[in-house]
Predict the 3D structure of the following.
Amino acid sequence: MLGTRGLYMKANYQDLGRYQDVDLDISGDAEASLPILIEQVKRGIDEGRKAAFDARGKKLAAAKLATVEQAKLDATIGWDASPITTARLCAELYSQIKDEDWSLVGTSIGLARPHRLWNFTKPYQWNGLAGGGGVGYTLPASLGAALANKRHGRLTVAIGGDGDFMFVPSTLWTAAHHQIPMLYIVHNNRAYHQEYMYLQAMAARLGRGITNADIGTTIKDPLVDYATVAKGFGVYGEGPVSDPNALAPALKRAIAMVKSGQPALLDVVMDQR
Amino acid sequence: MMIGSVKRLAAATAIAAAIAIGGAVASRAEDAPAGDLVNGKRLYLADGCFECHGRAGQGGRFNYLTPALAQIALPVESFIAFLREAPNDMPSFSADVLSDKDAADIHAYLSSLPGPKAAKDIPPILNQ
Ligand SMILES: Cc1ncc(C[n+]2csc(CCOP(=O)(O)OP(=O)(O)O)c2C)c(N)n1
Ligand SMILES: [Mg+2]
């Protein structure tokens, strides 16, 4: 029986019992537990509360719709730019997967566009971020999620940083060896960009070297050809894609590869965030 | 000190207003300052503005979401005052590293960058 006022549920044991001021803190898998919990809650609602909930639901739906419209408008800025904007990548990708049983299992740092532009309705459509914030997490963690998705026939997609990719590229060999379908998009901003921004901020604050923050923070001279790296591991690779008009056809080819049961990598030269 | 924080507050308020109405401003090209666009673009990239605000001025993210600056609605004087004493995690750029003239050129460049366009002309966006 539910008698609590607040409930916090997360499968990640690292967060258990921390920070959340709730009555009941239990470890559990939200995907498995929520459907039962929602039914329990529904049964406990009387007619009066139901009307109030419906009214609140309508308000929230309208607010959500307004934020999506704003996000769409924001996404048009720099639509034809190269490097490709993250908004364009996310819009193009979603328009090709939205009618599939998709699952987004990796996002590059600070990539907020999918949650502003896409319609998330199922627990497995996003699996969160690295608990410890470690770079190098996104590629291998995405493959783990892709393996979990495989038997459900879900279309697994991930967008990961180029710097992140540099940590454990051999993940791709594992993907090829075990034939784990996953579309992996390298958010190639040719930088460990988070560090680039921190250095820039420090340089400005100290009033010196404001044009030197790219030293040690960018990945150039030479540029990395991620598609060739992928091919070397036996994985379909395409790119670097810099022309925004070449993006949709490249996505289409890579998605076809994934739907045939294979991993695919697309290297997209993108703006920073 | 007092004056500084008042100026800072005024600038922060002005930019908040600018961001709020940003989407509705079609073009401010006619009242854009007579700055040097080419130099402005060069500095926007070289001095790292693009790192947080995007090469197309589309906005981005540092420790939180950072505003779009294309078709900036903030007047040039407020823009310069804002750069000198930026709030939160935005670094301040002193006159030692960025002159008023250079800042005005960046402002001119931002005024020249196209703002949002009608999403109805873009099929992948309509699809969302
Ligand atoms: C293991 C580890 N090393 C270093 C860092 C510091 N760090 C945080 S973000 C970042 C850059 C990541 O680059 P990339 O994956 O390309 O993402 P970007 O910031 O370029 O979008 C680094 C080095 C970290 N968080 N974890
Ligand atoms: Mg990067």
Remarks:
- The beta strands of chain A are 7-10, 24-27, 102-106, 155-161, 182-188, 236-241, 263-269.
- Residues 47-75 of chain A form the longest helix (29 residues).
- The radius of gyration of chain A is 21 Å.
